[in-house]
Design brief:
The chain is an all-alpha fold and 188 residues long. Helices cover 84% and strands 0% of the residues.
Amino acid sequence: RNQLAQLSFWVATKQFDKALQHWPSAMAQLEQLSVSHTSIYSRIHLIQSLAQLRKTGNRGPNEVELAQVLAQAVEQAQTMGDRKAEAYALGNLGGLYEQTQQWSSATALTQRALDIAQTLDAAELMYPWQWQLGRILNQQGKKDDAIAAYRAAVSDLKTLRGDLVAVSSEVQFSFKERVEPIYRELVG
């Protein structure tokens, strides 16, 4: 966990050389973990950091390696019967395919993640995948479908916003900062 947090910190603070130097050891340690909820989410968080690193144009594992780790997370979640983790892993895998502009795979994986999130009635999982689906559909020129996906994301955000009333203002601000792009993209 500490290595993953450190790697995430280095990427977030643009200390790319440190991140590039240490990601292989984090990946190696991850491979040694037995299947558990912790190992599944650790795989996902590692890939999120490495995908961010790749977005900056830095080296690191290629998209195939990243996809393989996420596919393992999906399989492990299915083995454990953890539908929430499965949706999270599938959605992140869809996001990876979005980055590589493999639109049909991105759409299919994101839709699978969204379907699972909807069966769980988990708005905190639905809005990111609806947003992602909106971006993917928009890139494919499917404007009406993209707008519908963005609107669904906004609707779920309204549900979550009500839950934030009792939460600290710092958490509210962080949430607002993360979701603001959804509204802007919908308007666009």
